[in-house]
């Protein structure tokens, strides 16, 4: 039993971590045990390398570099936020597609909300069978106001049209103007008002005749 216990002390002896009494007993055992003597010899290069590292490494340097906790926290938070935004976008796109199919050809405007990193994005889709105008408007909440995206199809024309943002206080801001030539039109623009302050978007002809109204809230 004593011999087996000494076998287990080989690593500790090679690293120099045995207390004086245990070291004395192991060295007393070592000449009589060829197995332990062989193991100590095999560990000698490793213990020598560790000793050299200890001599040349400043005390304040850790063996392994570790990222700061704040870095790990930021990385985990950003990954979680990305996953949440992806799930919201997929859900919003699915709901919007179902609403478009359900309301096709009925001349109604629809509103769906999709979360974004900067705030809230309202996506409005509508079609007016009388004027032949179909449009999708996205209103992205920004610190400076509302970033607006427009995709519009117009079977009328040729004519000049405009997209107007109408505030809840009745104020109006022109987002963009374009000429209808029979092809779909995609435009980007912006207004100073925030989405919460907007009542609706209107596609109008240049003479002010409304062609399609997209309310910020479904009626």
From TrEMBL:
Look up keyword Membrane and say if it applies.
yes
Q: Which Gene3D superfamilies match?
A: Anti-sigma factor, zinc-finger domain (1.10.10.1320)
**Boundaries of every Putative zinc-finger domain copy:** 9-37
**Entries under Pfam families matching the protein:** zf-HC2
**Listed transmembrane segments:** 90-111
Which terms are listed as keywords in the entry?
A: Membrane, Transcription, Transcription regulation, Transmembrane, Transmembrane helix
The domain of life for this entry's organism is Bacteria
**Known InterPro entries for this protein?**
Anti_sigma_zinc_sf, Znf_put
Protein name in UniProt? Zf-HC2 domain-containing protein
The organism's lineage is:
Bacteria, Bacillati, Actinomycetota, Actinomycetes, Kitasatosporales
